[in-house]
């Protein structure tokens, strides 16, 4: 058992990004004890109200090294309909239940910096209660490493994801899109019903604060940092919990929106632009932002998508600022003909 525990610790601490860590946790626990099922519910809420989404599910295949043993899931959980999960959240402690078939259900809340990060749900035979202490120790290692990874992945001022994590987060999203597309295709091939037509694509939007250099020059960097902080807070309020928010450095931000229609993404970005335009920032009053966005497809490279969105953003800067433009629309209308080099002119 000691050897397996050490191997589990090595496996967990060997992960270099927070997205791969939950998977390592489930496999590590499965090696310690023969599980019937295990899953992780992640708290995706930005407010005090807990909102859980099931992100991973491990099912018994008899071979835990088999990649098919783990499934990536994106389903929100209705806490009101699950008394055990609600109790786990209320008590902030392990919840153990056993049914008449000898299956023990174990719910474990995972807190990072006193905020609920996720809930681990394990199903196994009743013997699992004998190794509760071992499981608790593995969870402590997991929490410690997750805390370190979160700190390295986040911008220190705003708390948003930093530039360093962008490629990995976007690649994971593209992989998830590809998997979903393949699953839909498989279902369509097995069904006589009409083929599934996607309701929208994922999108990448670049956001830049207009005349931000003037803010720093006239009011100082403390006021400038306050603008960046307030803007990031407004981003978290405006966009969905499932959207990815990044600070790329300076006054530049990026939003990766999960699949919606082009009309919806335009409306959402325009709404955010209006919110910022009408917000009274401390020290300086009103500011505006410019945005450019582009469609994400599963075959794109992160640098390509960034380049498209950057060209649309640059066009917004050149054409009055405080505007939102879509790369594909600009391309179709011929507005980008002539090879605009994004960032080649200082517009601040």
Task: Report on the architecture of this protein.
The protein has 348 residues and is α+β, with helices and mostly antiparallel strands. The protein has 2 domains: 2-153, GAF domain (Beta-Lactamase); 161-333, Alpha-Beta Plaits, CATH 3.30.70.270. It is 42% helix and 24% strand. The chain contains 10 helices and 12 strands. The protein has helices at residues 2-13, 21-32, 83-91, 132-153, 166-189, 212-219, 221-238, 262-277, 302-318, 327-333, and strands spanning 37-43, 52-59, 70-77, 95-98, 103-112, 115-125, 161-162, 201-209, 244-249, 252-260, 289-296, 324-326. The strands form 2 sheets. The protein has a 6-stranded antiparallel sheet with strand order 3-2-1-6-5-4, with helices on both faces. A 6-stranded mixed sheet has the order 7-9-10-8-11-12, sandwiched between helices. α1 packs parallel to α4 (132-153). The relative contact order is 0.10. Residues 190-198 and 342-348 have low confidence and may be disordered.
Compact summary:
With 348 residues, this protein is an alpha+beta fold. It has helices spanning 2-13, 21-32, 83-91, 132-153, 166-189, 212-219, 221-238, 262-277, 302-318, 327-333, and strands at residues 37-43, 52-59, 70-77, 95-98, 103-112, 115-125, 161-162, 201-209, 244-249, 252-260, 289-296, 324-326.
Q: What string gives the helices and strands in order?
A: HHEEEHEEEHEHEHHEEHEHEH
Q: Any idea what the shape is?
A: elongated
Helix content: 40-55%
Radius of gyration: 23 Å
Give me the number of helical elements.
10
Strand content: 15-25%
Write the CATH architecture name of the largest domain. 2-Layer Sandwich
CATH class of the largest domain: Alpha Beta
Number of strands: 12
Biggest sheet statistics: 6 strands, antiparallel
Number of domains: 2
Class by alpha and beta content? alpha+beta
At CATH level 3, the topology of the largest domain is Alpha-Beta Plaits
* CATH level-four homologous superfamily name of the largest domain: Reverse transcriptase/Diguanylate cyclase domain
Contiguous runs where pLDDT drops below 50 for at least 5 residues:
190-198, 342-348
The average pLDDT is 86
- For the termini, the CA-CA separation is 62 Å
For the largest sheet, list the strands in their spatial order.
Answer: 3-2-1-6-5-4
